[in-house]
């Protein structure tokens, strides 16, 4: 089944592995969240987004809206420091196959193993009250690392849960934005 993958806001065509829908989701950067709090002098400030997060749910807008719940079969982790993020995800409906001999694996076998795997790291900055801009430095997807590549998200936070909604990337606004729900791990 051909699926359109979404990765860092750059769309690629997926492979036909028959293992179910594999969504390469955009920078689920998680923790790029803004906590609103008040300093002693009464001015608003952002609390730290540092920590470890995991994607719990993804909502895909458009003509065929879809919600994907990330359970044990879709392990993922996003780590955020004051300026940087790193994330890894397995985006498959079940365990990825283990080829008997990787040196002799077919193209389809390699796609089944590596296609659902997402890896990315980069920088982020708050560019508005409810807006964060992310810029990949290293990624499994070469398109995500292209000069000038970025993605802008709207976000909100309630407690240890954040929602990031795609707004635009270097190519323009997203016609069917994806919203990521992340929960704090630590």
Can you offer a commentary on this structure?
With 186 residues, the protein is mostly beta strands. The protein has a single domain (4-184), classed as Lipocalin (Beta Barrel), CATH 2.40.128. Helices cover 4% and strands 48% of the residues. The strands form three sheets. It has an eight-stranded antiparallel beta barrel. A two-stranded antiparallel ribbon has the order 1-2. Strand 12 (161-169) and strand 13 (172-173) form a beta hairpin. The radius of gyration is 17 Å and the shape is globular. It starts with a strand and ends with a strand.
Lay out the secondary structure.
Layout (H helix, E strand, L loop, with lengths): L3 E4 L2 E4 L21 E4 L5 E4 L3 E10 L5 E4 L6 E5 L3 E7 L16 H8 L2 E12 L2 E9 L11 E8 L2 E9 L2 E2 L4 E7 L2
Antiparallel strand pairs: 1-2, 3-4, 5-6, 5-7, 5-14, 7-8, 8-9, 9-10, 10-11, 11-12, 12-13, 12-14
Descriptors for this entry?
186 residues, two-stranded antiparallel ribbon, mainly beta, 48% strand, disordered N terminus, Lipocalin
Return the string of H and E elements.
EEEEEEEEHEEEEEE
- Average pLDDT works out at 79
Shape designation: globular
Question: Which structural class should the secondary elements be placed in?
Answer: mainly beta
Q: How many strand segments? A: 14
CATH class group: Mainly Beta
Strand order of the largest sheet: 5-7-8-9-10-11-12-14
């Amino acid at each position: 089944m051909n699926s359109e993958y979404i990765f860092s806001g750059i769309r690629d065509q997926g492979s036909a592995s028959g293992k179910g829908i594999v969504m390469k989701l955009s920078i689920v950067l998680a923790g790029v969240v803004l906590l609103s709090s008040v300093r002693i002098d009464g001015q608003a400030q952002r609390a730290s987004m540092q920590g470890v997060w995991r994607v719990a749910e993804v909502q895909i807008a458009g003509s065929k809206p879809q919600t994907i719940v990330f359970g044990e079969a879709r392990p993922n982790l996003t780590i955020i420091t004051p300026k940087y993020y790193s994330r890894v995800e397995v985006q498959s409906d079940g365990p990825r196959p283990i080829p008997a001999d990787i040196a002799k694996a077919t193209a389809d076998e390699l796609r089944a193993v590596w296609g659902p795997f997402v890896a990315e790291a980069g920088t982020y900055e708050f560019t508005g009250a409810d807006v964060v801009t992310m810029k990949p430095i290293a990624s499994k997807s070469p398109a995500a690392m292209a000069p000038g590549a970025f993605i802008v998200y709207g976000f909100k936070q309630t407690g240890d849960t954040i929602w990031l909604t795609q707004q635009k990337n270097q190519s323009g606004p997203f016609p069917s934005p994806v919203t990521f729900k992340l929960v704090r791990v630590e």
